[in-house]
Specification:
The protein is built from 26 helices and 8 strands. The protein has 657 residues and is mainly alpha-helical. The strands form 2 sheets. A 6-stranded mixed β-sheet has the order 4-3-5-6-7-8. The chain has a two-stranded antiparallel ribbon with strand order 1-2. Helix 4 packs parallel to helix 7, helix 7 packs antiparallel against helix 14 and helix 14 crosses helix 15. It is elongated. It starts with 41 loop residues before the first helix and ends with a helix.
């Protein structure tokens, strides 16, 4: 086991105890050698790696020493958390869920009608998607706060990708079938990632890229609503800002409808005012929540009594009445559209998954409970699979509705059930009342909903913290705004991967110096007062050493050494005789990394410089030992701390004539 010297903090703190150390000041401090871990056989090493990769949270620990019946019951509760929280459900919790459910229902109904237009689908499909999926999620989801339904970004992305394959205006039936097929495969993708515990794959889209993508998508969605707010009939199908603004400008003199503009601008101002009121005073959270349905009622009534539809104001007209019809026969399982549906479903499913898990974790942290990401994926995937068979398109967690759900005092997923029942009542009874609802009010509702997705404060913070992250953020943003949603998404993923590759292939290496009066050795850039040790160069590698960066690490260490040799020669200081490589941050090394160290050792020998290693971790020292590199370097040249290594170098230098 590796022990620590009293005055040197290392990366591995696992062996620290609370017992106060005792020292004999009359004797030099004890020097501990680097420990060599016991050799693992291949089977055990593979098992440990597999468990740490896919089962790091040890989900099976709760089943240990349980009876078969108990294990079955716990397994059922794991798949269907409703069986767990239902045992403690009471009237007090239902009261909170009822209020929250009614509140988010008043928000979701107008949003669903508007979002279905983003996906180029009839209004009823948006309502269908807020009926069945929330019921499935309520039984299988582990978040108490997520409100399920269609969301703006996924609706726009789905509509854009579908339109690239099938024209919704000329091939309406094929377009609808492809939408259901994409929803089916989105669910399959999400559920598979959850069952195989591959949720870490969605982490490859960085937070900065998501901020930029969401902001760009919000701008694009808002621009698309101008055709409804301004009453433009002949509007471009492109989504980039240049094409949209050209379409708006060319329609100024003959395409705008002034009655529509009045309705759209007036109610948009009303909606933004209510959002401001709710933001300034949290007690009035319900004001922006009921504002959309209030706007729909008022605007519909206004159009009906004035018959503004006869003056060119575009209205929703007919919404199909009735419960979700079966659509399993409409899903493509054979033919050329299967591959297209799969591709679209995977992309939309991953974006929906990223948004839902991020929302769930945010509110789980606020209420201090654990959210199982893989379980969430299974729940979201299952609800979309079932949804695709019941005339729904892709549903996920909505941030605006989830925020309202949270502030309204929801206690359990029952709030989703309440919302679902209100939507059911709507599709069974109320849909004819939306006949005279102007499209302008739906556009205003969507604009007011997506404005919050433009998180400029997060962008400013990203700029201050990490310039590379800011490039990823802006790349995704401008890609969506000036090209398309697909291009923006591609740029976001590409820059995220590029950042990972850059960090892996070009790891940081720093020069260390001694802090005066201590045995601590720190980065000389961070601590300018840190002093160089005469005749010794200390370099720290802040990354694992793999095939992708091994040559760079070796060359960078040699460059540090050459620079210090030149400085020593110029200042008349002693010749460099020792190179200490601090390996505490090196969590792993592969054969290419070992060859790089071996080449470095041979190169230093020719220059009569001794290579010394400091504090290699258990995995690293085990591989160095297996490759026999420790024998070449010498076990007496591998130390637990930099202080021990420097002490050795100093004593050796004093012994030399």
């Amino acid at each position: 086991m590796v022990h620590h010297t009293p005055d040197e903090t290392t990366a591995d703190e696992a062996g620290i105890t609370m017992q106060s150390p005792t020292y004999n000041l009359s004797q030099p401090p004890p020097v501990y050698k680097v420990g060599y871990p016991p050799q693992k056989n291949l089977t055990r090493e593979f098992r440990d790696t597999l468990r740490e990769t896919f089962f790091h949270d040890n989900p099976l620990r709760q089943y240990k020493d349980q009876s078969v019946s108990r294990k079955f019951k716990m397994g059922l509760q794991f798949l269907f958390p409703v069986f767990e929280w239902a045992k403690t459900y009471n009237l007090s919790k239902f009261r909170g869920d009822l209020i929250a459910g009614l509140t988010i229902a008043s928000l979701c109904i107008p949003q669903d009608i508007g979002y279905s237009k983003l996906a180029n689908l009839d209004p009823q499909y948006g309502l269908y998607s807020s009926f069945i999926p929330p019921l499935i999620y309520a039984a299988m989801g582990s978040s108490r706060d997520i409100a399920i339904g269609p969301v703006a970004v996924v609706s726009l992305l789905l509509g854009s990708l579908l339109q690239n394959e099938v024209d919704h205006s000329t091939s309406k039936e094929e377009y609808l079938r492809l939408a259901f097929t994409a929803t089916f495969f989105a669910g399959i993708t999400q559920a598979t990632l959850g069952f195989l515990r591959l949720g870490f794959l969605i982490e490859f889209l960085s937070h900065a890229a998501i901020v930029g993508f969401m902001g760009g998508a919000a701008i694009t969605i808002a621009l698309q609503q101008l055709k409804y707010v301004l009453g433009i009939k002949n509007f471009t199908r492109k989504t980039d800002i240049v094409s949209v603004m050209e379409s708006v400008w060319h329609s100024v003199h003959h395409g705008w409808n002034w009655q529509t503009v009045v309705i759209g601008i007036a109610f948009l101002a009303f909606l933004l005012l209510t959002k401001y009121i709710g933001k300034k005073n949290k007690k009035f959270f319900w004001v922006p929540a009921i504002a959309p349905i209030t706007s729909v009622i008022l605007a519909t009534f206004f159009v009906y009594i004035t018959r503004a539809d006869k003056q060119g104001v575009q209205i929703v007209t007919h919404i199909t009445k009735g419960i979700n019809p079966s659509s399993i026969h409409k899903i493509y399982f054979t033919g050329p559209f299967v591959a297209k549906g799969f591709k679209i479903g995977v992309v939309c499913g991953m974006i929906g998954l990223t948004e839902a898990v991020a929302i769930g974790r945010t509110f789980a942290a606020m209420k201090d409970y654990q959210l199982d990401g893989n379980k969430e994926m299974v729940a979201l995937g299952t609800m979309n699979i079932v949804g695709s068979m019941t005339s729904c398109y892709i549903a996920t967690g909505s941030f605006s509705r989830s925020a309202v759900n949270f502030m309204a005092g929801c206690q359990t997923p029952v709030s989703n059930v309440v919302m679902s029942m209100v939507v059911l009542l709507t599709v069974l009874v109320i849909t004819p009342l939306f006949y005279y609802t102007p499209n302008a009010i739906l556009g205003s509702i969507i604009i007011s909903a997506v404005i919050g997705l433009v998180d400029y404060e997060a962008a400013v913070l990203i700029w201050k913290v990490d310039k590379m992250d800011f490039i990823a953020c802006m790349g995704a943003f401008f890609g969506v705004v000036f090209a398309s949603v697909e291009i923006g998404l591609l740029i976001a993923v590409a820059i995220s991967f590029a950042k990972i590759l850059l960090q892996v292939t070009r790891p940081r290496t720093v020069l260390l110096g001694n802090l005066p009066g201590t045995t601590l050795y720190r980065n000389t850039d961070q601590y300018p007062e840190a002093r160089h040790v005469p005749g010794v160069v200390i370099v720290r590698v802040d990354s694992a050493i793999y095939f992708s960066n091994s040559n760079y690490v070796r060359e960078r260490i040699v460059r540090w050494l050459s620079d210090e040799e030149d400085k020593a020669k110029a200042d008349g200081l002693p010749k460099i005789n020792f190179l200490i490589v601090e390996m505490s941050p090196v969590i792993d090394i592969d054969t290419s990394g070992i060859h790089a160290l071996e080449d470095l050792y041979k190169s230093l020998q020719k220059r009569e410089i001794q290579l010394i290693l400091s504090n290699p971790g258990s995995i690293v020292i085990e591989k160095l030992h297996s490759s026999r590199l420790t024998e070449h370097i010498g076990r007496d040249h591998i130390f637990l701390t930099v202080a021990d290594a420097v002490r050795f170098c100093t004593s050796k230098s004093m012994q030399e004539p």
